[in-house]
Amino acid sequence: METVALAYEELGQDNPVPLIILHGFFASSRNWRKIAERLAGLFHIYVLDMRNHGLSPHHPIMDYPSMTADVLRFMDTHELATAHVLGHSMGGKIAMWLALNHPERTSKLIIVDISPKSYTHNFDKTIHALIDLPLATIQHRKHAEQMLTKDIPELDYRQFLMQNLVLEDGSYHWRIDLAIFLLMAPNIVAFPEIQGMSPYSGRTLFVAGANSSYLTQKDTLHLFPKALFKTIADAGHWLHAQQPEIFTEVVEKFLQRG
What we know:
Number of strands: 9
CATH topology of the largest domain: Rossmann fold
Distance between the termini: 36 Å
CATH superfamily of the largest domain: Alpha/Beta hydrolase fold, catalytic domain
Strand order of the largest sheet: 1-3-2-4-5-8-9
CATH architecture of the largest domain: 3-Layer(aba) Sandwich
Number of helices: 9
CATH class of the largest domain: Alpha Beta
């Protein structure tokens, strides 16, 4: 399986215990910088850009086995025999696939607002809206965000997506390859075949936003029988951004527990 060398941000280098953070679809390490800064007082933090995201290389294949292989390559390169792993949404599925297939490489696992299952939604409307955006006519990022209002009515989501729009040499372009995203999005919504797979017996915390329906215990406990579950009030799928103080406290308590 072909892997890529992932870009990353590193904080808390003086701390001995490594914590790897994996972001979600359309996101990047920068979306987790504030959380990483909060956790860097206790842990050696590596916030990765997954393939086709942030500053990492693009690759035409994007599925959970390949992205997990990228993480393993990163761990090997940085001589991390084991690490705590925290993953949100797509990153949570990568973290779960890593733990299920390579349990010896994970110490504690934190999965944020996602279950190990295939979902029925798709990203087609969002990706087509970004593809159809007339980049040559855009004067500034706010202009682009306003042009997406009809197809993507949620302001917070539009602003989140706009972080992938970059200005270079006087013109805007997408940092992400939308053609790859369109082809590979079904892999992101799905979860690989788990029939016959042994459950992960390590210590695992699933954290959900109270206003989100992505995470359910019934979809989770068969693969993670020792999992703990925590719900954060007044938060949805982006709970780490909506309730950062509470989220950080939950993570710290779990990782410091014996």
